[in-house]
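The material for today's practical consists of a large collection of protein records. Backbone structure tokens are a discrete shorthand for how the chain folds in space. An example says more than a description, so a record of this kind follows:
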Amino acid sequence: IDDVSLEDPATDECISNPCRNGGTCVDGRFNYTCTCTAPWIGLNCELPRGSADFEDDLSAFLYTQPTDDDMDWLRNSGGTPASGTGPSNDHTTGNGHYMYAKAALNRNKVARLESPVIQPTVGSCLQFFYHMYGQSIGTLSVYVRPYRQPLG
């Protein structure tokens, strides 16, 4: 007997072909990595490279609102309902959409908005515009966490 190998299909994480849009799956021990082709990014090459401008429904960008927080982010255009607390319009086009969280009556509460997994490349940079006006403003925190690890 020569060149015998025993493979367990259950350990080949690429057998289900999880990478989309022409991405190549690289099997690891109990996990996989997708090598995406331009212009795709994300864990499974499911996102177009570029920026999220919130002009489409959140699901279009695969953003989620976790259930382990206290309140949700809201999508809006124009000014916020309470005067003097939020932007009068979005930063990018002036008439588009943005996300905001109501701080009034929500002291010491947390609102989380999670992006899909993004595999950074050399020179990648997270950039965003924010607006924090009003009397009950807390802290804006941005966290990076390993895939499938709890935020802690």
